[in-house]
Design brief:
Elements lengths: L6 H48 L1 E8 L4 E8 L5 E12 L6 E7 L13 E2 L6 E2 L4 E7 L10 E9 L5 E5 L5 E3 L3
Antiparallel strand pairs: 1-2, 2-7, 3-4, 3-6, 3-8, 5-7, 8-9, 9-10
Length: 179
Amino acid sequence: MADAPSTADWLAAWGQVGGAVATTAAVIVALWVAFGDRRRQRAASEEEATLQARLITIELTLDAETRSATITLTNHSDRPIFQPIPTTFSIWHNDEGEPSGLSSSADHFFDQPSTPGLTVGAPPREVLHPTERYDVTWSGLDFPPDTTFRWLVGSSFTDASGRRWQRVNHDEPQRTTSP
């Protein structure tokens, strides 16, 4: 019976099995923690990018006296943005939300506005540095004085990390893949 395992052999064998199980569990926990950290880091990076995009504001100013509208993009962030362009522009004034006949899009802003007689008084910009404003003015608008307007105006831009964003009015900025 010299070849039969002793109690010490059995205990050593079960100790190795237990050690293997504990090692496997430790590897699983380490991987779980690593992937969790990676997800949290990615989420923090996305939040940081969104914070910069939130600091790009867009405003519309209408002037019935000069028959003009000015869209102002302002970079309130501490990093530049690139290729800031207006992407939508509509003004309407009736209670049903029907457009007043004035609308445009990025395709028409600098080449030929979609409304006849409308002129654009600003060249395209490649970079908008921190604290800078970019005013795009349209002249030749025809809207009745003393009218309450609702408006829809948007912009798109690329942040300092190369992400493209689109923002409409004061809504939350949205990431986009289109240039």
